[in-house]
Amino acid sequence: MIESFLFDLDDTLIDTKIYRQIYPEVVKRLSTQLKISETELFLKVDKLGLKKNKYGNYDSGELSKSFKQLNLYYSILETAIKVNKSLHDNVLEVFSSLKNKGKRIGIVSNSMHRTIELYIQKYQLKVDFVFSSDDAGCNKDQERYWKRLIKKEKLTPKNCLVIGDNLHEDVEVPSSLGFKTFYLDNVKKLKEVLMF
Ligand SMILES: [Mg+2]
């Protein structure tokens, strides 16, 4: 029986359009702040080994972090979160149904804690725990991430359902460690987790 529901954040609970919206501004302000051109900025990033996401951009948070400019990043992101609606439809409904059934809800994400908290605050999400790349010291594509999660939250993988949009990170890797998984290839399917 599933006791804990572990939700990915980006493109599962949150519409990541917000990151694509702020990306040009983050890049522009970083290059101004660091007094280098955008071309030079991208050359440096490339050397640091940062990977581009499926939209062809660097993760703006990771980008800012690698230049020690997280305050700049959050000043932009916090404003964007305030004025945009980023939460997917049905999230609040799904969460409250799970809570009514006495289930445990976790957010399990590659994002930084500070980012996850912004969404929790804005949408008053009732979650039992948050596990981030900050806790794991790596991303979800590493087994180490999941092993640390199991230990920290005292989870029994077979009693947990991992829900996410990334076939590798949210399905293949966690299922190799015994987690049940739900591949959210379309956000409209979110309510189907209630059938578990
Ligand atoms: Mg995702």
Write up this protein:
The chain has a five-stranded parallel β-sheet with strand order 3-2-1-4-5. It is globular, with a radius of gyration of 17 Å. It is of the alpha/beta class and 196 residues long. The mean pLDDT is 95. It has two domains: 4-15 and 87-195, HAD superfamily/HAD-like (Rossmann fold); 17-83, no CATH class. Helix 6 links the parallel strand 2 (104-108) and strand 3. The chain has nine helices and five strands; from the N terminus they run βαααααβαβααβαβ. Magnesium ion (MG) binds at residues 8, 10-12, 164-166.
Any chance you could write out the topology, listing elements then pairs?
Blueprint: E1 4-7, H1 17-34, H2 38-48, H3 60-66, H4 70-83, H5 91-100, E2 104-108, H6 113-123, E3 129-131, H7 133-136, H8 143-153, E4 160-164, H9 167-176, E5 180-183
Parallel strand pairs: 1-2, 1-4, 2-3, 4-5
Helix pairs in contact: 1-4, 3-4, 4-6
The structure holds magnesium ion (MG).
Task: Summarize, please.
The protein has 196 residues and is α/β, with parallel strands linked by helices. The chain has 2 domains: 4-15 and 87-195, 3-Layer(aba) Sandwich (Rossmann fold); 17-83, no CATH class. It has helices spanning 17-34, 38-48, 60-66, 70-83, 91-100, 113-123, 133-136, 143-153, 167-176, and strands at residues 4-7, 104-108, 129-131, 160-164, 180-183.
Which molecules are bound besides the chains?
magnesium ion
By DSSP, the count of extended strands is 5
List low-pLDDT spans.
none
Given the structure, what is the number of helices? 9
CATH class identity of the largest domain: Alpha Beta
CATH topology description of the largest domain? Rossmann fold
Q: What is the CATH architecture term of the largest domain?
A: 3-Layer(aba) Sandwich
Number of domains: 2
Rounded average pLDDT: 95
CATH superfamily of the largest domain: HAD superfamily/HAD-like
As a percent range, the share of helical residues equals 40-55%
Q: In whole angstroms, how far apart are the ends?
A: 8 Å
